[in-house]
Amino acid sequence: MKTTECGGPRGFDAGKKIKGRKRHIVTDTEGNLVGLLVHSADIQDRDGAVDVLASIRSLYPWLRHVFADGGYAGDKLRDALAQIGKWTIEIIKRSDVAKGFELLPRRWVVERTFAWLGRCRRLAKDFEATIESAAAWIFIAHIRRLTRRIVRP
Question: Does any domain span residue 36?
Fold first, then answer.
């Protein structure tokens, strides 16, 4: 159960039924965190994707291909990415005829990273008063995961 007892910007996404904040992450193919954006839940996924990808553009100029969830589909995102740089985006959608669990290519990498981050108790609920501190705790959780991975190869 998510809580919204702290201050700071919050919103409600009626489609996902999320109250509070959303986290957008960009990972590499191994699931390491490359980019992060935290914002109120009332901002659409496509708008959040443009902002998080724009934030990593100068850090990773060689990045050319992006895999994304079906929630990011649409011309709005493609047009925005064309203005940022020469990127191609591949939308990974679930089949309409599939029933039950279906393993989607490349999608599991981001979901696994969210699961790793979710193991940090501080991230299980939205305790942070500011978006900056929420993002900082996500980075701290990822740094802890990376250092544990280095110690135990």
Answer: yes
